[in-house]
Amino acid sequence: MSDQKKDGTCCAPSTTTAPPENCQKGILPQTAGSLPVPEAIREAKTGSNEGMVQLDGGTFLMGTEDDDQWVGDGEGPIREVKVNPFWIDRTTVTNAQFAAFIEATSYKTEAERFGWSYVFLGQLPKSKQRKMKASTVRNLEWWYAVNEAYWRKPEGPGSNIKKRMDHPVVHVSWSDAMAYCQWAGKRLPTEAEWEFAARGGLIQKKYCWGDELTPGGKHRCNIWQGTFPHINTEDDGYAWTAPAKSFKANDFGLYNMAGNVWEWCSEWFSDDWHKPASPLTRDNPRGPDTGQNKVMRGGSFLCHISYCNRYRVAARTANTPDSSTTNCGFRTVLDV
């Protein structure tokens, strides 16, 4: 798979890609983190386990050595990893849940502070695509930097989430997800916790439900069908995001651990930190101390075998902590 990798990716661009000239000049991404955090977020809370599943933890085989892996992503080697018991959300955080957070705290997401966020071209009307041609990202022509696109207006001005309150919230950066966690008294999962949960007790299967992508001809996740990036046949029933409880849950009762939206994890990304066997990398690993990008897992509605194929349970990617897109969300965990 690694020798077939395209220059572009269906995963997500980052704020390190210079915003196009016609994007309004807001707060620079690198300075957003210095803005004051609302008092309501700073207050310590004890998280509720409502809507969560308690997992007993234990030892599992993490990673893959399949031919389908992206070698440069550091998916391997297969290794025995231990995680402690924890609670995890059944679904990604929804628009309704995120709206409650905003209502309680008046928090402004980084996309709102910057004044723009990334939207996939197919989500924009043809007329807007033509007008915004200069807003495409170089080598990623299916991504547009759209002024005033943020979680409440996912496709920019004129769009809304009124009929998508049960869909996963999008246009949230890692920093936004952390702010939500702090308010809710929870945290983001480590990458090991995420994969333990996604596997649902299955051992070294390719997907969250087994080795067949569509067992019995049934779709089990929201990914791209057709020819990426221009033709989506929507065989799974969805073009873009699906409700957070779409499709059958995995054996742990968790929904959409593959496809729909990428999910932020807590740690910095590295393609080799985990390779040396040690207590640090095998016993409740927390990742490297520093880095440039944060781990993302699960794939999204844009993943397609011809470009990404990252809806596999061991697949991983990353983005800068201040980046936000139309295909990335998160779920939370809670210590037992």
Automatic annotation (TrEMBL):
Residues 9-20 have a biased composition (Low complexity). GO terms for molecular function: formylglycine-generating oxidase activity. InterPro entries: CTDL_fold, Sulfatase_Mod_Factor_Kinase, SUMF_dom, SUMF_sf. Residues 1-31 are annotated as: Disordered. Residues 49-333 form the Sulfatase-modifying factor enzyme-like domain. It holds the Pfam family FGE-sulfatase. Gene3D superfamilies: paralog of FGE (formylglycine-generating enzyme). PANTHER family: FORMYLGLYCINE-GENERATING ENZYME (PTHR23150:SF19), SULFATASE MODIFYING FACTOR 1, 2 (PTHR23150). This is Formylglycine-generating enzyme family protein. It comes from Rubellicoccus peritrichatus. The lineage of its organism: Bacteria, Pseudomonadati, Verrucomicrobiota, Opitutia, Puniceicoccales.
